[in-house]
């Protein structure tokens, strides 16, 4: 019911949408807006100086300090680390008071408002925990980070109390199952009530006897070992790999690499940090050397395999408590896929349909080194970078022009603003940063402004490289949109946080929280010096920014009354849909050519240059998709039938041998697969949402990616509902396929019908 881990949505890169080269004729010409403030606030130093916090000489990481600070995110508590602790303490106090009050109130009015008050309680807590999770991974000041970690622990303890409260569970059961009470509830309140009830049951409150205490114990073990596993996924068993002298040949290393490689009596030592190992994989003609380097890079510490084994066993024990035959069944019961069997059928069908194209890509690779045997069996993962580099070097045209010159960060943000204005009537308008409002001086603030409703949300863009950022790219919900009820505006209401911590917006007669989100990336300016420095993006980085802005628009345009279903608070296998759909826009040449301009000359991007670079960028995309299928299938196998005598490493190698392409049966990479903790039994979600996004793109935007009619339809039939309606209903409505409403195996089959063409359009 109440989140015990981050609700900010971590995103991850995998397969990409097709390069769209639809003829220009069917699509009206799009004219960028004349107001280019969004571009200039990134690309023009004089413009940026008008919007930034002007306080001089602040030490790095101390941007929220000093007198006159309004506090981070305009929260007056957040002027210094001690204020974050005070905000947490104050929130917990009001949350505890509200908890006692709503449990004790058995009046008719109290029962009618019970679900609303549970939602309000959850919102109070999430304002703190979402903020803390953001601070932990993005704030440059260690004192703030430490304070956020302490607050997170306090919140975790209290939320465990709530999640196992028998009184709250039984009262919710009473409200939902009393016909006289439930008939007075809105559909959204019933939806949230059922969601919370299912969460209570998943927390063990439906269990008898010792079941509840066993659940709590298992949950704690899963959280502890899972976090330890996730924290160590980037660690390797050794900082270097030793290659015997007998396996090294003259010319194996470029002169640049030789500076980092040490020859000893035992052999050649190659470091596994920095750019060196990837450069070896890309340039070294010696397959034995590449194999040793690749395997060492993907071999985890032995303790990681033990942690993964324990994590999976604890999850299997947890599933058994609820009479499920697998953790996958326990996890997927309330997701779109419904069951592990549906997921496996989906993945197997996708693998079969895409395999011929994977084989074709591998044959192209094989030609670069004259491999005559079956390439799908012969080519291994340590061959990929080397063979791809050889192939692409032969395909390079005489033009060496860098396409990133046409995609300055400001140009791309302006392009996004113009696109959103066209399809949603939403503009990204720079807003002045007040003293202490941001955590780092380069952060830009934007107001998402609707042509109908005015400001609908705030977006903070923390897009530049900083070594302390431990997670990127990412979208964080600092405050979600939800209705604020009249009693909450009462100054005498003892349970409400001070309203200065929340920005509000009127919509008709109702007041809503103004959504506040932060986008975090690690783009690095490399062109120019000082104030003239510009950040130029690759095509992959353009896609990344479009993807993250898809999450942002979901938060901005969601319009629900309750917090638990606002914006991106929806099923895991549905949440990536809006962001993946944005990647289709990022690959459409009509969209890119509508805004891409040379950062110095202002000349538009030549179509031929774009197509050449897109061809290079999309090389081996079918193989990437196949790799994602393998990982999703591995995730299902590990969380499959309850069998406590299992070995995750053997399971991994069995899956690799089954799928064959780029087979790895030597490393222990499975213990470096961090998403096994955060997306346990749900790693298929990205591929599944891509299938849905493909269908929506083809149905709404393929003919005209700038269509306001299509944008309004997607906004009104998908985005605005957040998680308040069954996603299958939303998909059925927007695709005009009522048979999808069943959400069963037949619906999944229909949705992915003609999957070959879907994946043929997937890069």
Structure, explained:
The protein is an alpha+beta fold and 763 residues long. It folds into 4 domains: 9-13 and 29-64 and 405-617, Orthogonal Bundle (Neurolysin, domain 3), CATH 1.10.1370; 72-216, Glutathione S-transferase Yfyf (Class Pi), Chain A, domain 2 (Up-down Bundle); 240-298, no CATH class; 325-376 and 619-760, Orthogonal Bundle (Neurolysin, domain 3), CATH 1.10.1370.10. It is built from 31 helices and 12 strands. A 6-stranded mixed sheet has the order 1-8-12-7-6-5, sandwiched between helices. The protein has a 3-stranded antiparallel sheet with strand order 2-4-3, with helices on one face. Helix 7 packs antiparallel against helix 9 and helix 20 (539-557) packs across helix 21. The longest helix has 28 residues, at 340-367. The two termini are 37 Å apart. Residues 4-18, 22-30 and 755-763 have low confidence and may be disordered.
Largest sheet: 6 strands, mixed
**SS content category:** alpha+beta
Number of helices in the DSSP assignment: 31
Query: How much is the average pLDDT?
Result: 88
- Low confidence ranges: 4-18, 22-30, 755-763
The CATH architecture of the largest domain would be Orthogonal Bundle
CATH class categorisation of the largest domain? Mainly Alpha
Number of strands: 12
Side-by-side strand order of the widest sheet: 1-8-12-7-6-5
Approximate strand percentage:
5-15%
EC number: 3.4.24.59
Keywords: Hydrolase, Metal-binding, Metalloprotease, Mitochondrion, Protease, Transit peptide, Zinc
Domain Peptidase M3A/M3B catalytic: 281-747
Cofactor: Zn(2+)
């Amino acid at each position: 019911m109440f989140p015990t881990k981050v609700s900010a949505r971590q995103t991850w890169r995998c397969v990409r949408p097709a390069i769209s080269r639809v003829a220009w004729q069917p699509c009206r010409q799009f004219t960028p807006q004349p107001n280019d403030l969004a571009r200039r606030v990134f690309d023009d130093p004089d413009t940026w100086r008008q919007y930034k916090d002007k306080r001089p000489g602040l030490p790095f990481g101390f941007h929220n300090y000093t007198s006159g600070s309004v506090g981070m995110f305009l929260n007056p508590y957040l002027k210094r680390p001690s204020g974050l602790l005070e905000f947490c303490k104050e929130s917990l106090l009001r949350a505890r008071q509200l908890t006692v009050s709503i449990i004790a109130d058995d009046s008719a009015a109290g029962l009618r408002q019970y679900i609303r008050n549970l939602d309000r309680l959850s919102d109070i807590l999430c304002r703190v925990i979402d903020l803390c999770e953001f601070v932990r991974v993005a704030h440059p000041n260690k004192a703030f980070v430490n304070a956020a970690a302490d607050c997170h622990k306090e919140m975790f303890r209290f939320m465990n109390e709530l999640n196992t409260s028998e009184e709250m569970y039984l009262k919710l059961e009473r409200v939902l199952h009393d016909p006289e009470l439930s008939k007075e509830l809105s559909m959204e309140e019933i939806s949230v009530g059922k969601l919370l009830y299912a969460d209570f049951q998943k927390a063990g409150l439906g269990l008898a006897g010792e079941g509840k205490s066993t659940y709590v114990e298992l949950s704690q073990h899963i959280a502890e070992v899972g976090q330890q596993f996730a924290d160590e996924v980037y660690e390797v068993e050794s900082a270097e790999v030793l290659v015997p002298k007998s396996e090294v040949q003259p010319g194996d290393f470029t002169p640049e690499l030789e500076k980092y490689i040490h020859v000893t009596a035992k052999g050649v030592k190659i470091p596994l940090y920095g750019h060196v190992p990837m450069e070896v994989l890309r340039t070294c003609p010696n397959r034995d050397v590449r194999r040793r380097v690749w395997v060492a890079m993907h071999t985890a510490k032995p303790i990681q395999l033990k942690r993964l084994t324990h994590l999976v066993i604890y999850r299997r024990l947890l599933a058994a408590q609820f009479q499920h035959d697998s953790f996958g069944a326990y996890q997927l019961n309330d997701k779109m896929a419904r069951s592990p069997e549906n997921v496996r059928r989906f993945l197997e069908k996708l693998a079969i349909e895409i395999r011929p194209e994977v084989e074709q890509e591998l044959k192209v690779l094989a030609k670069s080194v004259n491999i005559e045997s079956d390439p799908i069996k012969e080519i291994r993962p340590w061959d990929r970078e080397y063979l791809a580099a050889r192939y692409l070097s032969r395909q390079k045209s005489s033009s060496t022009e860098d396409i990133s010159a046409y995609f300055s960060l400001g140009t791309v943000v302006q392009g996004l603003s113009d696109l959103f204005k066209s399809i949603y009537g939403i503009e990204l308008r720079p807003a002045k940063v007040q003293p202490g409002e941001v955590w780092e001086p380069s952060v830009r603030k934007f107001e998402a402004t609707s042509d109908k409703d005015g400001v609908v949300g705030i977006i903070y863009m923390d897009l530049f490289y900083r070594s302390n950022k431990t997670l990127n790219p990412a979208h964080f919900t600092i405050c979600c949109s939800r209705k604020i009820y009249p009693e909450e505006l009462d100054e005498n209401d003892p349970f409400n946080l001070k309203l200065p911590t929340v920005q509000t917006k009127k919509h008709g007669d109702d007041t809503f929280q103004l959504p506040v989100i932060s986008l975090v990336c690690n783009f690095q300016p490399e062109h120019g010096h000082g104030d003239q420095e510009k950040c130029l993006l690759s095509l992959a980085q353009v896609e990344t920014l479009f993807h993250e802005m898809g999450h942002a628009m979901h938060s901005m345009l969601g319009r629900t009354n309750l917090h638990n279903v606002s914006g991106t608070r929806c099923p895991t296998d549905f949440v990536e849909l809006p962001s993946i759909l944005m990647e289709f826009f990022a690959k459409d040449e009509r969209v890119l050519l509508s805004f891409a301009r040379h950062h110095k000359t202002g000349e538009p991007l030549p179509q031929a240059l774009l197509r050449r670079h897109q061809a290079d960028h999309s090389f081996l995309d079918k193989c990437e998709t196949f790799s994602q299928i393998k990982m999703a299938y591995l995730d299902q196998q590990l969380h499959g039938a309850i069998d406590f005598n299992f070995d995750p490493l053997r399971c991994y190698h069995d899956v690799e041998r089954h799928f064959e392409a780029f087979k790895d049966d030597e490393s222990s990479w499975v213990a470096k697969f961090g998403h096994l903790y955060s997306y346990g039994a749900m790693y298929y979600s990205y591929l599944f949402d891509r299938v849905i996004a493909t269908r929506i793109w083809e149905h709404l935007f393929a003919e005209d990616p700038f269509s306001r009619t299509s944008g309004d339809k997607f906004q009104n039939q998908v985005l605005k509902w957040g998680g308040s309606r069954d996603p299958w209903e939303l998909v059925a409505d927007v695709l005009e396929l009522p048979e999808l409403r069943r959400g069963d195996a037949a619906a999944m089959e229909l949705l992915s019908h003609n999957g070959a063409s879907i994946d043929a359009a997937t890069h």
